[in-house]
Amino acid sequence: MHCPGTEPDRRRGSTLVVALMMAIILSTILASYLDLALSQLKLANQEKYENTTQRLVENGMELGLFLLNYEFRDADLSSTPSTFVDEAGNTWALNWTAKTATTTITKNLGSNRTAYTTIVIDNFDRDITNYANTAISAETVIKDGENDLITRRRIVADMEPRSIFPYGFVFTQELEYRNDWLKIRSFRPNTPGGYGVKVGGDYDYTYDDNVTVGATIFDNASTAYLDLYGKAIVEDITGSGMDLGTGTKIQDQYTLNPGSNLIDYGLFHEGFTYEFPEFEAPSLTDSNVVTLDFPGNQETLGDVVDSGYDATTGVYHYKIEGDLNIYSGETLYIQNDVVLEVTDDFRIYSNAKMIVQSGASLVLYVGDDMYVYRGELDNQTADPSKLLIVDVDQPGVTESETWTIYSDTDVHAGLYAGENAYIRFYGSDYWKSSGKFYGAAIGRFGRTYGEMEMYYDEDIFENILSDVRGLDHTYSFNPVSWTETNSSSYLAGDPNP
User: Fold this and answer.
1) How is the chain split into domains, by residue range?
2) Among residues 25, 71, 107, 406, which one has the fewest Cβ atoms lying within 10 Å of its Cβ?
3) What's the rounded Cα separation, in Å, for the pair 167 and 467?
4) Predicted local distance difference test score (pLDDT) of residue 366
């Protein structure tokens, strides 16, 4: 006979209570796991959208950089259009007053999420006189269907122009100094808006980075730390006929890796690749071909309006077939802005002169050797960018050239020789030569003789960019700063108000 409240009933009641408690515990655990799973899903989605935002904003920055360096460079914007459609089909709004180009790219991410990437390019028309204000900003925001912000990321990059022209010395194989010492320093004009003041035969400059390269510094198993940031690059240095040896270390004081932009870093010893520029002289008609006979021992280019004058640019163009020789007692004057092509050798002999007069400039294309022997290569502007001597041979040409600077006076010039060129500089006390070199140079080999002083122009790069005068060369903008920020305001306003 079973009576209520007996032992079996109590056991069944206890089991039910335990089951209910276990159910509650399991429900709590499941709820916790569910909440944890939802939190993890939320975090995973947030991380996914943050990664998507980062990827899209960096893509936007790269798109802006490509537009600035290529599409806007090649576009015909002379009619100042209000919009520009790029190759990908994006429409850019052009603000000619602020010099900004702006676009917003929309991307559907699914799950009721939309990404908006806004890109703003400052100085989109690549005005080199205003290049300091060049910048690219990119911002990506992701919003939900209620227009609520999920993630946001902004990148701002300041840009500077880069060129195949360095403002220092680039020798892709060797820089060798013979007899005494080699000094490399930088200089800048000491007068605002001008290039030096000539007083008593000397120019007044501001000098920096005093570095002397000589046998006392470079010897076997020595280490030299040079403050030559962006000024001199060579693969090997040899002094007084002696190789430095395998134990020698030459390091830039800044210890930067020159691999990314070779012409922007210091003296680099262990070898590098430099892509020599491809130069071509301007296309000239037969009427531009001239013969210089030096009547009365003088000739002048650019003095009168003639067949070589380009009224649009104000530049005089001339071409000499074969050699140009300036012999003892003869003087060639350059007046106004002149572009001159010499298809073969260019030589200035002892007691001869070529003078770039104050206010003038010369871009001289040379087809083969250049030889200044005890003559004067006199750039009276004292601005190296106003006398550019350029090798017109194309890359891959095996013929080598020798360019010799053996001047009785200081030389202010930019020497841009070919990939097989040998540039020789003769300094003071070497067969009575007394000139110093101011400017920049590119070549495969460099060699100096005597007590040679070479000064790299810290401004030549900018001056060439701003005033190319018939020198057909392009440049690109590179980021010099990269900042990720969040601002209280959206780029170009809210992309989806």
Assistant:
1) 1-163+477-497, 169-474
2) 25
3) 15
4) 92
Give 151-168 pLDDT, tens digit per residue: 999 999 998 877 666 667
Q: Residues with Cβ < 8 Å from 200, sequence gap 6 or more?
A: none
3-state SS assignment for residue 153: strand
What confidence score (pLDDT) does residue 114 get?
94
- In this prediction, residue 136 carries a pLDDT of 96
What is the Rg, in whole angstroms, of the alpha carbon atoms belonging to the chain? 34
Question: HSE of 350 in the Cβ direction (CA atoms, 13 Å)?
Answer: 3
Asked whether 139 and 491 are in contact (CB, 8 A), the reply is yes
Give CA–CA dist 128/409, Å, rounded: 33
Residue 370 scores a pLDDT above 60:
yes
Strands (E), 148-222: 149-162, 169-178, 181-189, 198-199, 202-203, 205-214
Share the mean pLDDT of the chain.
Answer: 76
CA 473 to chain centre: 12
Greater confidence (256 vs 358) lies with 358
* 455 φ/ψ angles, rounded to the nearest 5 degrees: -120, 120
| Residue spans of beta strands (DSSP E) within 343-465 | 346-348, 353-356, 361-366, 370-379, 387-391, 402-407, 411-416, 422-426, 437-449, 452-457
Torsion-angle region of 485 (φ positive above 0: left; ψ -120 to 50: alpha; else: beta): beta
Cβ neighbour number for residue 203 with a 10 Å cutoff: 17
CA distance 302 to 394: 28
Top pLDDT among 253 and 454 is at 454
What are the pLDDT digits (tens) for 314-327?
Answer: 889 999 999 999 99
Across-strand partners of 422? 402, 445
Those residues whose C-beta lies under 8 Å from the C-beta of residue 329, and which sit 6 or more positions away, are: 297, 351, 352
Give the single-character DSSP code of 71: I
- Calculate the alpha carbon distances from 130 to 104, 126, 331 in Å: 25, 8, 39
Give the list of residues 6+ apart from residue 5 with CB closer than 8 angstroms, or none. Answer: none
Distance of CA 226 to the CA centre of its chain: 22
Q: Between residues 13 and 346, which one has the greater pLDDT?
A: 346
As a whole number of angstroms, the distance between CA 152 and CA 143 comes to 9
- List helix spans (H) across 70-157: 72-74
**pLDDT, tens digit, for every residue of 460-486?**
777 777 666 656 666 778 887 888 877
Identity at 479, one-letter amino acid code: P
**Residue 233, SS3?**
strand
Global confidence as pTM: 0.68
